[in-house]
């Protein structure tokens, strides 16, 4: 696989327009590189030398230098035993995936773990029937974080919405994935991502949480509120080529680098993210 079109210069990192009262500012990100990746359907993770693209039940490891495939893990077939890997996160040499039985009812979820060097599946944690479909997880500030998504979409063969998007929750968990706290997403974002839900999430180096929907080329910049149960939406960043799904900040870099995917084109993108002014309280 070849690395395509090295640098794409977009607008300067500035708000597209001054926000109106009650609106959040919108910023532009810059596309650094794009890579073909057959498994770029659900999400992506990255470490110092590689990025990892995930499909529903397979993961491919790629070189960061040219996007070439290094190795691949795959289940026997969809649903045996994994059904729907939703995202990936790399932490201390392991890949952690949020997994669910989407679109089967009732919803069940788990955390699945691989060795990042060998792609050997090494651990699992089952939530069973819980708060929704587990769509992403990340490590930040000594805790695990993630989201249990619900949907306004009525799935094939069902008669009711798949949980209702407004029931989506972002959660903070301990080392054993027990939920400690949970928050809901602001109405403005829920209206934007419905009938789907919160698909991806990753904590930035600025201490802010970046969330994505299922199919929009934008990430929503969030802060944990000082009080109450609704996340604080402080900015939106428009990201070239991305169409929602799982995202991952590159913590091996000192730069503000985000990895994302375009599901339709099976593309992984490397993104330079803008600074968000007044990011810290």
Observed structural traits:
5-stranded antiparallel sheet, 22 strands, 44% strand, 281 residues, globular, mainly beta, 2% helix
Summarize the structure in words.
The chain is an all-beta fold and 281 residues long. The protein is 2% helix and 44% strand. The chain is built from 1 helix and 22 strands. The strands form 5 sheets. Strands 1-3-22-21-20 form a 5-stranded antiparallel β-sheet, with no helix packed on it. Strands 2-19-18-17-16 form a 5-stranded mixed β-sheet, with no helix packed on it. Strand 12 and strand 13 form a beta hairpin. It is globular.
Fold topology:
Elements: E1 3-4, E2 26-28, E3 30-36, E4 43-46, E5 50-54, E6 58-63, E7 69-74, E8 84-91, E9 94-100, E10 109-115, E11 121-128, E12 133-140, E13 143-149, E14 169-173, E15 179-183, H1 187-193, E16 200-203, E17 209-212, E18 218-223, E19 232-238, E20 248-249, E21 257-262, E22 267-272
Parallel strand pairs: 2-19
Antiparallel strand pairs: 1-3, 3-22, 4-5, 5-6, 6-7, 8-9, 9-10, 10-11, 12-13, 13-14, 14-15, 16-17, 17-18, 18-19, 20-21, 21-22
